[in-house]
Amino acid sequence: MNIYFQEVKNYFRVTLIWIAALSLMSFGFLSMFGSFSGDVENMKHLLAGYPPQVLSALNLQVGIFFTAIGFFAYILTFIWLVGAMQAMNLGMGVLSKEIAGKTADFLLTKPVTRFSMLTQKLFATLTLLVITNICFVAVTMFSVNMFSKDPFDGYILFLSALTLFLVQLIFLSLGFVLATLIPKIKTVLTYTLPSVFGLFILGLFGNVLGNEEVYYFTPFKYFDVSYIIRNSSYQSKYLWLALGLTLVGIIIGYVAFINKDIEAAN
Amino acid sequence: MNVYFREIKSHWKGFLGWSAAIAFTIVSGMVKFQGYNTASGKSSIGELLKTFPKPILAIFGMSGLDVTKMIGYVGIMYLYIVLIAAIYAALAGAEIISKEELDKTSEFLYPKPVSRSRVLTEKILAAVTYQLLFFVVAVITNIWIVDYYNTGDSLTPQVMTLMWGVLLFQLVSFSFGVFFAGIFKNPKLPTAAVTTVVVSSYLLSVFIDINASLDFLKPLTPFQYFGAPKIIAESQLDPIYVVMVLAISALLFALTYYFYNNRDLTI
Fold first, then answer.
1. ipTM
2. Mind spelling out the 3-state secondary structure of A167-221?
3. pTM score
4. Which residue among A29, A190, A201 sits closest to B91, beta carbon to beta carbon?
5. Which residue of chain A comes nearest to B85, CA vs CA?
C-alpha cells in the first residue's frame, strides 16, 4: 500500500486546486442565476411566440431551460472540460512520472509486481477523483439550494452533477492508455490539452449542427441534462459506452504497461 | 544559429501535427456548414434567431452571429481556430524554454560559449517561425475553403481580418508561455500556468456572454475584445486593444529576458 499512499499524498495539493477551481465555477455561475431568472417571465413570453419546430431544432425546452437545473446544465459542459483536464493529467501523470523523473529503476527494482504497482496507482487516482466529486457535488447542491427560489428535484441535480465523475473516468483511462503507449513523455499537458480540447471542440461542432453521429466520438456529449430531467436516469447506451470505454482503456493500460520495456535512467 | 536550427529540427513533428489538426478542423467544419445550410430552410431561421434573447443565443454559441450566412458561420469557426491556435502557441512558448531544465540538459547547453540572451533569442525565433508557418496554414486553408463554398461576394477581406485576430491570440499566448518559462524555477510549472491563463480567460468570456452585469470585465479577456461578433460587426480589430496586446507581449518578452538572465537554472 506504500505506493498508494505515496501517490495520494503527491497529488493531494494539486487535487485541492482542481477542487477549488471546479467548486468556484459551479458556485460562481449559479450565483448569477438570480439575475438571469429575473427576466424569465419576459423571455418565456417571447419564446412562446416562436414556432415549436424552431425551439425543438435548438433542443430548447422552455419549461426546463429556466429552472436552476437547466441553468446549471449550461455550465456543466465547461465543468466537464476542466474536470477532464484534471482526470487526464492525473491518469497520464501518475504512470509517466517514474520514467520522466528517472525514478523508474528505483521503483521497479523493489519487490512489487508491476501489476500491484499499477493497481495501487489506479486506486490512488480513483480516490482523488472520488474526493473531487464529493466536494463538487456538495458545493453544487448547496449553491442551487442557496440561489434557486423555486423548489428543485435533488435527485436529478445529483445525477446531473455526478456526470462529472463519469466523464472523468473516461479521461482517466484515456490518460492511462496514452501514458503507456507514448514512449517519452516530458510534460503531460502537451498531450492532455490537445486531446481534451480536441474532443471538446468536436462536441461544440455537434452542438451547432445537431449531428447525432458525432456524439459517439466525444465524451462531452454522452450526458444530456434535459434527458436526465425527463427520465430521472442516464441514457443507458451512453452510460454503458462510458463505462465500457473506461474499462477497455484500463485493460489496455495494464497489458501495455506490464509488457513495456522501460528504459533505465542514465 | 545552432540553437535555432536544432530547435527547428526538433519541433518539426509537433508543427505538422498541429497544422494538420487546424486544417482538418477548418475543412470539416465548413463541409458540415453546407449540410446544415441546405437542410434548414435558410434565412427564415436566421431572421428568427436575431430576435432571440441574448443569453439564450450565448448559450448556443451564436451571440451576434447569423449562422445561416457564410460569414456568421466563419465567425463560429473562428472560436475553435482561436482555441487551437492559442493552446498551441502557449504550449510551444513554455516548452521551448523550459525543455532544457526538464530534460536536464541545461548543464550541457549553458556552459557553451553562448550567452543566455542569445540562446533565448534563437529559441524564441525558432518557435515564432513555426507559429507563423502554422498561421499561414490556417489562413490559406480558411480562405480557400470559404472561397470554395461561398456563392456571394468574396469574403476574403473579412476572413483575413478575423485571421489577424488569430495571430494576436497566438502572440499573446506565446508571450505568456515564454514569460512563465522565464520566471519559474520549477520547469513543470510554466505549462500549467499558461494553460490556466488561456483556459480561464476563455471561461471568463463565456461568463460575460451570459451575464451582462459582468461586462466591466471585458478588457481582461481577449476572447471578448477579439471576439468574432465584434470583429465582424466593426470589420476591423479594435485598434486600442491591438496596441494593448502588442504592448503586453513586448513587456512580457522584456521581462522574460530580464528574469531568465538573472535566475538560477534548475539542475
1. 0.80
2. HHHHHHHHHHHHHHHCCCCCCCHHHHHHHHHHHHHHHHHHHHHCCHHHHHHCHHH
3. 0.86
4. A190
5. A194
